[in-house]
Amino acid sequence: MAETAAVDVAGNLARVRERIGQAAARAGRDPQEVLLVGISKTVEPARMRQAVAAGLTDLGENYVQEAQEKFHVIGPGPRWHLVGHLQRNKVKAALQIFDLVQTVDSERLGREISRVAEARGRPASMLMQVNTSGEESKYGVPPPQAEALARALAELPGVRLEGLMTIGRWEPDPEAARAEFRLLAGLFSQLRSDGRGREMRYLSMGMSHDFEVAIEEGSTLVRVGTAIFGPRPARSGVADG
Ligand SMILES: *Cc1c(COP(=O)(O)O)cnc(C)c1O
Q1: Taking Cα atoms as reference points, which of 230, 206, 232, 238 lies closest to residue 1?
Q2: Does the Cβ of 224 fall within 6 Å of ligand 1?
Q3: What distance in Å separates the CA atoms of residue 94 and residue 56, rounded to the nearest whole number?
Q4: pLDDT digits (tens, 9 = 90+) for 131-190
């Protein structure tokens, strides 16, 4: 968590909200349907607090340990999202912090979350991560297996499957990710319409450089880091965890 140069977090947040509004308008959508989650990996708690003070309601972290340290300082006021890969041996620690685990991509992990959640006496909310780009560097269930995994996760007693998440391919032109966002949106509406996905409300797609395309394709949750908090130190790119 390196200290970096001053960043106008409140101003950035206002600009991101404005862009969300414009993208929603282009798609004929209500911007209120789009939840903004500020992704704060490597960002120091003081800057995260500035964003919360400026109205940011949701924070996202990639690593359980980093989130633990920050949660200790910031507390449970904002909602906490896990957007990095979760190892099964960290499920217990994760459920003590995160309101929504966005990265479940196997039945094994889902079962462990369900088991720990039942032991805590509180259902755990999760999204299923889909690898829509097919890139090997990315976590997520491959699209052909997504429907079957969603059904299996939806039946676990301790969890609520509340939607889908994907990371679009990174190319300088954000249009490159549009087909992937469209694929996830199609899967989302299919799972919702067949009645199993009663609790499916989050379609998590879109980051700083492609959230406008994602909103045009139906995103209801965008994960925005650098556009709010400023650039990260060089070594921490888009980390899946
Ligand atoms: C880092 C990260 C983000 C935010 O990326 P930015 O480009 O800084 O907006 C969103 N989602 C995931 C999964 C990430 O790892």
Answers
A1: 232
A2: yes
A3: 21
A4: 999 999 999 999 999 999 999 999 999 999 999 999 999 999 999 999 999 999 999 999
Ligand 1 site-directed mutation target among 9, 37, 39, 181, most atoms within 8 Å of CB: 39
Cα 43 to Cα 8, 17, 233, 236: the distances in Å are 13, 20, 10, 11
**CB 214 within 8 Å of CB 205:** yes
Write down the pTM of the prediction.
0.95
Q: How much distance in Å is there from the Cα of 194 to the middle of ligand 1? A: 31
**Closest residue by Cα to residue 216 from 7, 73, 27:** 27
Match 């964003």 to its residue by tokens: 51
> pLDDT (tens digit, 9 = 90+) per residue, 85-130?
999 999 999 999 999 999 999 999 999 999 999 999 999 999 999 9
Q: Which of 206, 239, 230, 238 is nearest to 13 (CA)?
A: 230
Residues 6 or more apart whose Cβ sits within 8 Å of residue 194: none
SS3 category, 58:
strand
What value does the mean pLDDT of the chain take?
Answer: 94
CA–CA separation, 215 vs 206, rounded Å? Answer: 7
